[in-house]
Amino acid sequence: MARDSYHHGNLRQALVEATVRLIEEKGPQGFTLAEAARAVGVSAAAPYRHFTGRDELLEEIARQGFEEFAERLSAALKQGRTPLSAFLGMGQAYLGFAAERRGYYIAMFESGISIAGNSGLTQAADRARGTLVHAAEALFQRIPDSRRPPAGMAADHIWALSHGVVELFSRGKPGGRSPISPADMLESGTLIYLRGLGVITD
């Protein structure tokens, strides 16, 4: 199948998908470009037609990951019946992406690549964050201007909380023994945070 993909001119994407599997198996630093080439049945030199090196391949995987991640967050935002349910739903979409697209998630957040050094990657990451900011702005509409927290700050806090839940409570991490599921942990943490900001008062 890999050779068929290559002969149809899809070597670039075939390398991305093969590398995602290698990341899941070996981690973001545990594979070589030659291994990715071998996985799709091409010579060790063939990947260099599309990528200058391993880091550029990782950046492309991260870019594609952020694009899908942003789409999932946007879908969760649209599905929310209220600003609060949308905000909570986006948190669950975050966990779902981390679990279902593990190789992409690792490339995005655990590979050590520089997002700022790649304009396409930066735009994709900014789009994902922008969706969270938009959701926070909708959620804060009822708060008077004088007491309204910055939406960007709230988006970053929830992003950090979501990432922390993934890192501590999934993939066999230490918190995985907790009787509370990652989904419940994130939702309860988000609600506590929002109560502290005065968004939820009942």
Summarize the structure.
By secondary structure, this protein is mainly α. Helices cover 68% and strands 0% of the residues. The chain is built from 9 helices and no strands.
Commentary on this structure:
It is built from nine helices and no strands. By secondary structure, the chain is mostly helical. The longest helix is centred in the N-terminal third of the chain and has 26 residues, at 54-79. It is elongated and about 65 Å long. The model is unreliable at 1-5 (pLDDT under 50).
Question: What is the CATH architecture assignment of the largest domain?
Answer: Orthogonal Bundle
CATH topology of the largest domain: Tetracycline Repressor, domain 2
Structural shape: elongated
Level of helix content? Answer: 55-70%
CATH superfamily of the largest domain: Tetracycline Repressor, domain 2
SS field, number of helical segments: 9
Order of helices and strands: HHHHHHHHH
Ends distance: 57 Å
Q: What's the overall average pLDDT, rounded? A: 88
Structural class: mainly alpha
Evaluate the radius of gyration: 19 Å
> Biggest β-sheet, characterized?
none
- Fraction of residues in β-strands: under 5%
SS elements, strand count: 0
CATH top level class name of the largest domain? Mainly Alpha
